[in-house]
Amino acid sequence: RIAKSTAEAMRGTAEVEYEYLVPVTINDPKIIDVAAGAAKKIFGEDGVLEAPQMMGGEDFSYYQEKIPGAMVLLGVRNEALGAVWPQHHGCYRVDESVLVKGAALHVQTALDFLGVELH
What we know:
Blueprint lengths: L1 H8 L19 H15 L16 H5 L34 H16 L5
């Protein structure tokens, strides 16, 4: 409607073609609770932040069509290492020392989900 009206105001025409790429990624509240609890165990209370909703597309949503899931973001920015660029940028880098904590988060989330306590 906006494209059509704007084009008509300038004596033109407009056609909008919308291409549906991926489903919406919606985190399951129960899985988020498990993952947040696991993250607090790995990173501490102050190491867990709730990210605002984002408009980016993500094919992770196809998994969530099959089973409940949650997308968790891992902070890998480190100015001292030059890890300051956004994902998909040609200069993108990560602070690789954080990756082991990401792996630990996956393991802890799985253990907590399954109700397994390691002693």
